[in-house]
Amino acid sequence: MAQAKKVALYAVSVFVLYTIITSPARAADLVQVGFEGISSAAQGVGEFMTELIN
User: Fold this and answer.
1) How far is residue 48 CA from its own chain's centroid?
2) Which residues make Cβ contacts (< 8 Å) with residue 26, sequence separation at least 6?
3) What is the pLDDT of residues 1-54, one digit of tens each?
4) Beta-carbon neighbour count of residue 5 at 10 Å?
5) How far apart are CA 28 and CA 41, in angstroms?
6) Alpha-carbon separation of residue 20 from 10, 13, 26, 31, 54 (angstroms)
7) How does 28-53 read in b/e, with b if 16+ C-beta sit within 10 Å?
8) What integer pLDDT is reported at residue 35 of this predicted model?
9) What does pTM read for this prediction?
10) How many angstroms separate the CA atoms of 40 and 32, rounded?
11) pLDDT at residue 22, as a whole number
12) How far apart (Å, rounded) are the C-alpha atoms in residues 41 and 35?
């Protein structure tokens, strides 16, 4: 099982590096979308906590 995890991690790493090298603009767009999602989730949690306290 541990060997399968290593192989899967290696395959994902190779795919990410291939995507970055062949299409850096698209990779940057995907990273931006990811950070925007994390930011909006954090903002939602902050709003929820604020309303919970009030």
Assistant:
1) 23
2) 19
3) 788 889 999 999 998 899 889 988 988 898 899 999 999 999 999 999 999 998
4) 9
5) 20
6) 15, 11, 8, 11, 45
7) eeeeeeeeeeeeeeeeeeeeeeeeee
8) 95
9) 0.58
10) 12
11) 92
12) 10
Amino acid, single-letter form, for residue 7: V
Residue 53, token pair as written in the block: 């306290």
Residue type, 47: E
What pLDDT, on the 0 to 100 scale, is given for residue 10?
94
DSSP string, 1-54: -HHHHHHHHHHHHHHHHHHHHH-HHHHHHHHHHHHHHHHHHHHHHHHHHHHHH-
